[in-house]
Amino acid sequence: MSLQNFFSYIVVYFLLLFKAGFFFVETIGRYTNLILLAISIILFIISKSRFINSTIWFAFLTLFCEIITFATMGFPGIEFVLSCTFNVLLVVFIVSAIGKEQFKFIFSNINLVICVISLICFILHYIGLPLYQKFPLLFNSHGEGGYFVILSIPRIEFSEWSNYRIQGIYWEPGAFQFFIVISAIFDLFNKNFSGKVKLFRLIVFSVTVLLTFSTTGIIGGLLVVFLYAFKARKRSIIPLVMFLFFLMIAISYKIIDENSYLYYSLFGKLNGIKDSYMYGGSSDVSAETRFNSFVYVLDEYLKSPLVGIGQMGRLELLRRRSVMTTFTPLNMFAFYGTFLGVIHVVGITRFMNLRGKSFLEIIIVIVILILSVASEQFAFNPILMCISAYGYVSRIKYQNNKIPNHIV
Predict the structure, then answer these.
(1) Rounded CA gap, 48 and 401, in Å?
(2) What single-letter DSSP state applies at residue 406?
(3) pLDDT value at position 231?
């Protein structure tokens, strides 16, 4: 592996860890911003990259719309503005230095290893040999602990059924499912993988997303498995994939049936959302939070569709209505206005490269994308911004970067 490929892996790993990782995402942000930007600049220099015009425009429009919102809806403070600026600069250097296909490959590979390490930690706990407890213990701002195993962070509460959910290195299982499902989609459309390699990786992703016990994650995982079977078009593969599909359902039912918390965790949300819609309230806090994050944010967004609600609007929703803004598809429009929301959403769909795909494939991928971010706040997170910015970059642009589109 060349030096620049090695640094590409380092940059993407720290991007995931610092911008979505348990403890790191909320505890030491000002330091992680500087570290991540520094190693991204080093990669940019090592790879002898050039800035890409479309990425510069993407960054400029993002900052411009954010500034307009801050000026209109209230200034959120210098630290928040600096964080937004760091995030945009980060996107410029990463997208300029790492090729689009290479980014997908590295992203998927890192999350595959995270899945494997997390499964090993899960098994070690299950057999009564929690060796991961030898690693450093980290605590987030809520006082929740996790063991930092580099490519996994098993929670200190792992021994309790109420927390017996895999979350990788991320802030919670609901966030982990997003990275698993997106990685599985990247693999699905990767022409450099053989059928057997794709199937092995799909099995790892499927088992791991199952053990997150995330409602949206399991639905998304089942859709990915179905899409794999649809694309395979090989009689020898389809039965195996369909077996995996039904095995996921059977295992889910067996485990959930034996544990009331997991049943409540998965299906309580669905019942809670129904109750919130029909009766205006729900006994399920998680469901009510997600329902309110759509209804109240939509209400505020419709009052200011051009410039959005901004950070001050988010804080006001939290103060006045105790609303957590966790519905990313709406947040992308609501935070900084319709114009910027359209730019970012179009970039994401372009990045998925759906041109030439069948109508069914397009619909399934779009549904999976919406589901995977429907219960977490990823809007204007630099991870999602990188994906969006890549959507506006042609593969030809990377010929001068001297970085291959994939790593062998």
Answers:
(1) 6
(2) S
(3) 78
